[in-house]
Amino acid sequence: MLKDDYQMFTVMIKDKTGIDLNQYKEAQMKRRLLSLREKRGFATFSDYGKEMGLQNDLFEEFLDRMTINVSEFYRNPERWDVLKNKILPVIKEKKNVLKIWSAACSTGEEPYTLSMMMKETRTKARITATDIDDTILKRAKRGAYPERSLKELPLEWKDRYFQKDGPGYEIDQKVKTAVSFNKHNLLKDAYPKEMDLIVCRNVLIYFTEEAKQSIYQRLADSLVSGGILFVGSTEQIFNPSEYGFEAEDTFFYRKQ
Ligand SMILES: C[S@@+](CC[C@H](N)C(=O)[O-])C[C@H]1O[C@@H](n2cnc3c(N)ncnc32)[C@H](O)[C@@H]1O
Looking at residues 40-65, what average pLDDT do you find? Predict the structure, then answer.
């Protein structure tokens, strides 16, 4: 049977980038890419994909659209308060230096929030932050943010860890140096091991149910026993025990 147009496109993208669009919710992804394809004047996804192989600008624009990069510091503040006041005191008791992974970190607001929290609570930690998107990682390393990204951040932290930089803010070098950024595809690459805390928020919603289940299992395998997975505020795991988790608090899961 002839593959449909979108399916041919997914094959081209997988060959070029290793990114498997079939593991993202199809209707949502197709809608997002269709508006971009039409804006660029292509009648079919296959024509669009072929031209992308020739024009890097088109490819960069596609990548930018398919990875939704919205983020902010201290996103959903009450959850970060739970991390600081309830979860962290328990996990830091057992270890001198915590191993923390911010998976799908976008422009760096999440791992830098973790870095500030470690400073505020005098917790030693090695923070690894990863994302599939190279361009986004470059922006994360630069550490410059518009005012709106800081709207949920405690004011004292803003005063302590940011300098005004034109209309926006630049984050302190001491917050930056605690974080190392790497490219990583959650659907394909090997996961780091022996993590004490994994923060993986606002990315699982884009994946198919099957892909999500496999990621939950791999995240669980990546944690030490007693380690914590912190997910986004629409990403509750309904059957945590299937992956060896128990619910610790809303949106926090402890590996048993
Ligand atoms: C909405 S942002 C979430 C940022 C941050 N975690 C937060 O909650 O504010 C989603 C991020 O997931 C990344 N992403 C999408 N697919 C991915 C994949 N297969 N592997 C790793 N990161 C991925 C995107 O590049 C984007 O930066």
Answer: 91
Q: Is 68 in the pocket of ligand 1 (CB under 6 A)?
A: yes
**Binding site membership of 88 for ligand 1 (Cβ less than 6 Å):** no
* Paired tokens of 180: 């190392």
SS3 readout for 24-86: ECHHHHHHHHHHHHHHCCCCCHHHHHHHHHHCHHHHHHHHHHHCCCCCCCCCCHHHHHHHHHH
Q: Is 198 in the pocket of ligand 1 (CB under 6 A)?
A: no
| Ligand 1 binding pocket includes 131 (Cβ within 6 Å) | yes
pTM summary value: 0.93
Give yes or no for a contact between 179 and 165, defined as CB atoms under 8 angstroms apart: no
| Whether residue 108 has its Cβ less than 6 Å from ligand 1 | no
CA of 245 to the centre of ligand 1 (A): 22
- Bigger pLDDT: 66 vs 81: 81
2 pLDDT more than 70: no
Ligand 1 mean position, distance from CA 229 (Å): 16
Q: Per-residue pLDDT tens for 205-249?
A: 999 999 999 999 999 999 999 999 999 998 999 999 999 999 999
